[in-house]
Amino acid sequence: MDNRGVSLVALDMHPIIDLHVDGAGEVDPNFDLVKGHGGKLLHEKMVETVAEKFVVVENDRKLVTRTRWKWISNVC
């Protein structure tokens, strides 16, 4: 149990999750989004796969005019 009283369990103990709530790395005006690309990506995809419902919550700090543009422009 973490310090907020939420029980933490392994996916093999609970192979179906009612709800998975997560954030996005970027969201464009069409609500197309990019989910991060860091070390947690595999874990997040595993949880998303077994969730009955998946909800993305974001605020205006993640709004961009074009998704992935900052990564593409940093490479070029």
UniProtKB/TrEMBL annotation:
<comment type="similarity">
    <text>Belongs to the ribose 5-phosphate isomerase family.</text>
</comment>
<dbReference type="InterPro" id="IPR004788">
    <property type="entry name" value="Ribose5P_isomerase_type_A"/>
</dbReference>
<dbReference type="GO" id="GO:0004751">
    <property type="term" value="F:ribose-5-phosphate isomerase activity"/>
</dbReference>
<dbReference type="InterPro" id="IPR050262">
    <property type="entry name" value="Ribose-5P_isomerase"/>
</dbReference>
<keyword id="KW-0413">Isomerase</keyword>
<protein>
    <recommendedName>
        <fullName>ribose-5-phosphate isomerase</fullName>
        <ecNumber>5.3.1.6</ecNumber>
    </recommendedName>
</protein>
<comment type="pathway">
    <text>Carbohydrate degradation; pentose phosphate pathway; D-ribose 5-phosphate from D-ribulose 5-phosphate (non-oxidative stage): step 1/1.</text>
</comment>
<dbReference type="InterPro" id="IPR037171">
    <property type="entry name" value="NagB/RpiA_transferase-like"/>
</dbReference>
<dbReference type="Pfam" id="PF06026">
    <property type="entry name" value="Rib_5-P_isom_A"/>
</dbReference>
